[in-house]
Amino acid sequence: MKQKIREWLRRYLPAEVLSMVATLVGAWLALQGTHSQLSAALAGTWAGNVAYFGYLLGQDVLLARRACHAQNRPYTRRIFGRNVRALAVEFGPAEVLDSLFIRPALMYYLPRWLGSFGAGIVLAKLLADITFYVPAILSYELSKKRLRNFGDE
């Protein structure tokens, strides 16, 4: 189990750090520009998503390119499609609930309830991550053999 936890941390922790920074910056910029906590909650959610999924897609493409290169094969659009499909399988169900309902609601209400914008955004992100990672990690583990194995092409 220790090895699995290390694997998950290597996969998700760098993306989480980037996402946290993007979430805070996106929410703060939206709040400054619109003075709307709703806009800040939505901007923080989507800025974090772009950073998070952009990083993971980049990592997956890099790994697939290395696997193809090791086999003297080109990295094709078809393989890129597999990278995108693997992310959709890994995060699809968790992401729909997270981005459309759970995370924006927490990012809207927690800063109000705590009386601190920054602390509320950080706590909202951490709480939403809990509901996000359980189905995401399960889907990741199920998708590894079929969608992330580039040696069978």
From TrEMBL:
Residues passing through the membrane, by range: 12-31, 43-63, 114-138
Which UniProt keyword terms apply here?
Membrane, Transmembrane, Transmembrane helix
| Protein name stated in the entry | GtrA family protein
What is the species of this protein?
Hymenobacter volaticus
Lineage at the top is: Bacteria, Pseudomonadati, Bacteroidota, Cytophagia, Cytophagales
